[in-house]
Amino acid sequence: MTIVTISRGTYSRGKEIAEKLAAALNYECLSREIVIEASKEFNIPEIKLVRALHDAPSIFDRFSYGKERYIAFFRAALLKHLQRDNIIYHGLAGHAFLQDIPHVLKLRIIADLDHRIQEEMKREDISADQARQILVKDDTERHKWSLTLYGLDIWNPSFYDMTLHLDNLNVDETVSIILHTIEHSCFKTTPQSQAKLDDISLNAQIEAALTNEYPKATVESRNGTAYVSIRGSLIDEKNIFSKVNRLVKKVAGVEKIHVNIVPHFIED
Amino acid sequence: MNFKNSRPLPHPTMTFWRKIFPFLRWWNFIGWDTTRADLFAGLTGAVIVLPQGVAFAMIAGLPPEYGIYTAIVVPLIAAMFGSSLHLISGPTTAISIIVFTSLSPIATPGSVHFIQLALTLTFLAGIFQLSFGLARIGILVNFISHSVLVGFTTGAAILIATSQLKHIFGLDLPGSGSFFITWMNILSQITTSNPYALAVATGTLICAALFKTFKPRWPGLLIAMIVGSIIGVFIGAESHGIRLMEGLPAQLPPLSLPDFSIQTMRELAPKAFAIALIGLIEALSIARSISALSRQQIDGNQEFIGQGLSNIIGSFFSSYAGSGSFTRSGINYHSGAMTPLSAVFSAIFLALILLIMAPLTIYLPIPAMGGVILLVSFSLIDVHHIKTIIKTSKDETAVLVTTFLATLFLDLEFAIYSGVLMSLVLYLSRTARPEIVDLTDGANEAGHFSDQTKSQYLNFKIIRIDGSLFFGAVDHIMEFLHNIDKKHTNKCHLLIVAYGINFIDISGAEMLVNESRRRRGTGGGLYLCGLKDLPREVLEKGEFIKDIGADNIFCSESEAMIKILDRIEHPL
Question: Which residues, in sequence order, are CB contacts of B339 under 8 Å at separation 6+?
Fold first, then answer.
């Protein structure tokens, strides 16, 4: 009873590993399905969602919060799905949302660039230089995405429980190592870790409900009580309170709401 | 981890640049939501400052466009380099009056010489203010208590409202008079008020109030002013004696050069110093009043630097001395401004208005402005805090009322001085009377060993002093100690539980030595227990501990009790 997230670069064979792992454990294997699910649930174009999860935010995004909105929808869909447990997720951004959940095994799969270039050349029928350019650009976008939005460096190994380099290891050996690792008790779902996942899932549902009106809203919830922080002027307090209450009321599982207005943020 | 807030720790280089360029401290808070709010607030502020700038420049004895130039350059620099997120600087009544009274004996108001002197005065005031900020004496701001601010804000709100009544009633009153004289003039001329002006002002006021109540996020004040203008056009404002805005030259602030001759600098330095001080007090008081609403912490030194830079740079762009404006800061905050970008937008809009719409400003009726300012001034009155202060403390209420009345009847800066002075006097009188708890006299919360002591040892007294033993408190403590002897002649042994004493000065230490000698003379003794490090250090360094007796000082009450009772039972 666990969840495995696999973070990978393009053509690092992460998808193959995820699928074999899911088959071995008889778990659900998810990636693009979440994007489709979020797209349907929140009625947003799939391509916009994919771009929001992949491309680093532009200066315009910073002001319009377009990316934040899409990410909020995706995060809500992903966490809602993960609450079911027994899932292998290989895809965009999952590891960033699950950092605090202890029973989630967070993996990073890396492969040699040369090997990835070969794969890309074969698949796309392009030159080595073109393939290299595409892969480097892709990696840089993902790195910037995480760094810009959450201040997290996806190339930092401390971000993961385990990083596996597919050089000497082949796919089956890698799967075997992961299977052995998830046997450890620290990766088993406990009532406490499940409760934590339920809480962050509720946070995500509330943030998704608020994101059109308040894209920078942050939520901390505990056992159905939600503490919502909203950027806004204190003179608008009443209006914000009633609007937040109206929007959050629709979210299942919310028993009580506390709204905190954040009128400013000053850095040292 | 809340992933949205999981930003990396600031890099030391970033921290360095944030100190040099304080706008980088709030830069990351900017988004579309804050920009939208700031745009609305900036637009509203620009329209509000337009007639004010003209009026204040005229009060200062300068051509009207200088008021507008000051309203463009000064707030922009002050907002970017100051501390407050909502303070709007620019031309103000108080500074304008001081500029006029300082320079009119030296030069003819409105002349080229007068203008150059005003720019030099501004430059020098800015230098003083910047020096205060760099010398980090912004700590002065901490002496302006919340009650002083609430009193000052309330008083200033009523002053601002009073100043607008002549526009609202369409009265032709003499220039700037005191609060009392203004009211006397209004009441004596109320029968000659212009009903059309009153209609325009009332219409604008009602419109602004409705927007404030039902659509608080809309730029209600701006819409109200447009409505006021439409009412003015509809009823034929000018033909009914309603004053309209004057036309302005369509020109951005031109470059200018203050007079740097030694003689002029020497002559203007004392006047510039007064302007610097008043400007800072005004700006800081307003910044703190707004911060009481916005919950922002104000860095006084940074605000001094911002004000100083704004005046220095302003003097090179045809701007005269500015400071924080109560009205415009209030409007800015109540229009929903979230960052100092509102001041930047306000400056840009004002520049655009000046360039493009200068001819249209003649359609804005002055009573419409009065109506809007009236609403804003009453929004500045913090009824909730006034009630809390009145319910909580008589001393604080006295400070509030004093500051309030002083604001109405004295100059603004003296109102603050009087409030601060009263706060300090009350504080000193409180600290000069530290609480002395009698632990052997009846039931009290700290008397856990008192019953036994009282019954068994009639010549032993225990007290606890909560407060500092300094020169101001010596008399009060001495009186208490002598009163012990008057009431109970047998209580010659006295233990002072000193956990509550944070500080002892030389006078306090000498008082303890004298009391110790006096008690030894009557066959008793003075004992101390639970002394904190700082008071103990003073007693040791000054060798007072020798006179009191090192063996009369104990770590805890229990150790003191055991040893003192043993000495009483078995005297040497």
Answer: A264, B26, B29, B30, B34, B38, B85
